[in-house]
Structure formats: structure tokens, C-alpha cells
Amino acid sequence: MPIYLSSHHLKMDEELCFFNQDTLVIKAPKKTPLILRMVVLLFTMACGVYICLVCLKQINPNKTMIKFLNIKVIDYDNESCPDPHLEQWEIPYVHYPKPRTFERNECACNPVRYFAILSMQRSGSGWFETLLNNHTNVSSNGEIFSIPDRRRNVSSILKNMDKVYNLDWFSSASRNECSAAVGFKWMLNQGLMENHEEIVKYFKKRGVSAIFLFRRNLLRRMISVHANSYDKEAKQLNGTHKSHVHSPLEAQILAKYKPKLNATLLIPELKQDEETAAKATQYFKTTRHIVLYYEDVINNRTKLNEVQKFLGLPYRELKSRQVKIHTTPLSNQIENWEDVQKTLKGTSYESFLADYQVSSLALL
Ligand SMILES: *[C@@H]1O[C@H](CO)[C@@H](O)[C@H](O)[C@H]1NC(C)=O
Ligand SMILES: *[C@@H]1O[C@H](CO)[C@@H](O)[C@H](O)[C@H]1NC(C)=O
Ligand SMILES: *[C@@H]1O[C@H](CO)[C@@H](O)[C@H](O)[C@H]1NC(C)=O
Ligand SMILES: *[C@@H]1O[C@H](CO)[C@@H](O)[C@H](O)[C@H]1NC(C)=O
Ligand SMILES: *[C@@H]1O[C@H](CO)[C@@H](O)[C@H](O)[C@H]1NC(C)=O
Ligand SMILES: *[C@@H]1O[C@H](CO)[C@@H](O)[C@H](O)[C@H]1NC(C)=O
Ligand SMILES: *[C@@H]1O[C@H](CO)[C@@H](O)[C@H](O)[C@H]1NC(C)=O
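A: This is the predicted complex of the input protein with 2-acetamido-2-deoxy-beta-D-glucopyranose.
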């Protein structure tokens, strides 16, 4: 009979509090010093709070009661929809947007989850996003903050997010009425780190879930960054720049370029990348989030099931047509391989050198 027992406890505590208060008051001289009066007051308040907590604990075992209370407190955006039978913790993350630009029609009562893919350039987030968008019920709208004007100040950032989450953002990826998860891709250097406080507040208020996507091998990322910026200048594919390719031939052409890395800057730069990623996860640790690594998603497709579960999506097999650009061993991809090898030997980054895990030129 745990409930009976705790109500008994409550009585004991109550008596204890009042008893102590009485003795204190009785013992006090007529001209009670202000400090003593304050002590008595604080003590009484503490007792009150304690009693309240004990009372709340007694309600706790009755789960249906709590659920009932919460559903009353948190308004659904569309109250005429039937109860979606969610776990209690899920409620803040489920929404019924009312787009201004169209009607959700038969899907008006399908709940929608909000997400943001937080990543760094050349970490596989483009590929990851095409995989997500292969799901009928996902709209991931690309790097909306790659345009500087949209991230010039916090109010502009929040306004653009409002538009995405209200389903009023239009991109080639936007589905219409039957989206069950909507979001976009955001690079850490696109106003995210500078405005993290406001953004975290927004994520918590609106129930946005963060999907971190990082790359374990930061050396491969660095090569990719160099190769991509070289191609931006040189436009190797018939005069057009492509950051993602769709055929093995295109991939081979782009992989011909071998960057030369500045050995002096190598370790400081790797360290900086590592710290940026750590700082970002630290900033967002109080939001609902998941941390993924590109290498893990490539090597283990069940990671994608984990993501679908995280977003409350019905499970689908997800496919992308993008081809990986760099598939040969690292030693063939860096012009000054010897230098790089010498610099990283014996440091915590040595493991980046011996990395053959992604080796086949597969259509992913
Ligand atoms: C709310 O859901 C009902 C279906 O139960 C739908 O007819 C109505 O249009 C929805 N309202 C909004 C604003 O989405
Ligand atoms: C998912 O990818 C497959 C294979 O490329 C394609 O046939 C299908 O249409 C895609 N589905 C969506 C919703 O994009
Ligand atoms: C924020 O930036 C937008 C777009 O650049 C601009 O139109 C707006 O006036 C700015 N607002 C503030 C408060 O600075
Ligand atoms: C997914 O989309 C289809 C239509 O494309 C719709 O029938 C279905 O209800 C949607 N599922 C969810 C969970 O929203
Ligand atoms: C470049 O253009 C030519 C002729 O239009 C075409 O045959 C070739 O495949 C193109 N190369 C690539 C890499 O797109
Ligand atoms: C490497 O970077 C340092 C610092 O920016 C610079 O002083 C040095 O000249 C660079 N070395 C090469 C080989 O470019
Ligand atoms: C693949 O990922 C799943 C879920 O993320 C995990 O449980 C499983 O152990 C992984 N398998 C391998 C071989 O790493």
C-alpha cells in the first residue's frame, strides 16, 4: 500500500514542520531580530514546498492521470483531430501545421515532426539529405541559410525557420500535404554557432529535433573541402561546378585533382574542426538530438532505421543516386602524402591516415 504509506509520511512531515515552527516562535524574544524572523519565514516556506513535492509524488504513480493533465495543458494545433496515442514525452515534438499556401486535406490530421540536419561542409550531408528525401513523407529543404541575407540577424533566421516548419517553404524537395517530417540542412558556419542561444530556445519552444551529422575522418573531409573549392574555380566538368556527382565518370574526373596540404597548418586545422563539432553538440545538448557519423551510415544501413525512428516515420528502404567522389586510398589523393604522413604520425590524428573503410565506387 505505497500510497497509504506516503500519505502517512506526509502527516508526519507536516507535524514536524509545524512543531518546529511553534518552538521557534515560542522561544523567540519579544523584539525578534529581523534576521530570526526571516529565518522562520524561509523555514516555513521550505516546509510548504516540501509538502507540495510529497503531494505531487503521490499523484505520480497514477500514470493515466498525468497523461490526462498534460493533454489538457498542451494544446494541439488542430483540436478536431483524434488523439494520436503518443507517449507523453513525444507530445511537444508533434505538430499540425496550418500552411498558408495550401490545404493539408486528407493529411490534416497526420502529425508532423520538425527537424534540422546540423553538419559541416563535405561531411556527406548532401547525400544524407537525398536519402531522407527518398522517403515519401519527408521534406528536407536543403541549405536554406547558404544565402547570407537569410541569416543576417536572428529575426531573419527565425522567420525563415517559421516558414519551413509551417510547410510554406518551397524547394524541389518540398512535398505537400502528407509530410510527416519537415526540415532543412544547416552548416555550422552559416550563422548557427553565432546565434546558438536564440536557436536553441527556438528549437525547444517549437519542438524541433536536431540531427547532427559529422565525419569521423576529418582528414578526408579536409581533402574534400580543398577539391571542392578547386573545382569551383576550375569547373572540370564541361565548365560547370558540381559539388555532388551522379556518375562514376564524373567522379573519376573530379578525383583526378590532388590537393597539396600545408603541413604546418594541418594539425591546428584538424583540431579546430574537432573543437567546432564538440562545441556545437555542447550548445545543443539540451535539445532533442541524435549524433550520426557519415562513415557509420555508409557502413551500416540500419543507422537509417534509427533516424526514421527518431523522426517518428513509418519505415522505408531509402536510396540515393549520388556517387562518392573519393574512393581510392588516401595516399593517392594527396600530393604531399609523405609530409602529411610525417606530420600526423604519433598524434591523435594518426588513425585518419590508415582509413580504407570506404573503398568501392558504389552507386549508393
Ligand atoms: C483540422 O482537422 C480536420 C479533420 O479532422 C480538417 O477538416 C481541418 O481542415 C483541420 N484544420 C486545419 C486548420 O488544418
Ligand atoms: C526513392 O529512390 C528510388 C530509387 O532511386 C526511386 O525509384 C523512388 O522514386 C524514390 N522515391 C522518392 C519518394 O523520391
Ligand atoms: C534583419 O535582416 C533582414 C534581412 O537582411 C532585414 O530585412 C531586417 O531589417 C533585419 N532586421 C533587423 C532587426 O536588423
Ligand atoms: C505518407 O504519405 C502518404 C501519401 O504520400 C500518406 O498517405 C500517408 O498517410 C503519409 N504518412 C504519414 C505518416 O504521414
Ligand atoms: C562533356 O560534354 C560532352 C559533349 O557534350 C559529353 O560527351 C561529355 O560526356 C561531357 N562530359 C562530362 C564529364 O559531363
Ligand atoms: C603554410 O601556412 C603558413 C601560415 O599561414 C604560411 O606561413 C606558410 O608559408 C604556408 N606554407 C606553404 C608551403 O604554403
Ligand atoms: C548497426 O547499427 C545498429 C543500430 O544503429 C546497431 O545496433 C548495430 O550494432 C550496428 N551493426 C554493426 C555491424 O555495427
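The beta strands are 113-119, 138-140, 181-187, 208-214, 289-293. The first strand starts at residue 113 and ends at 119.
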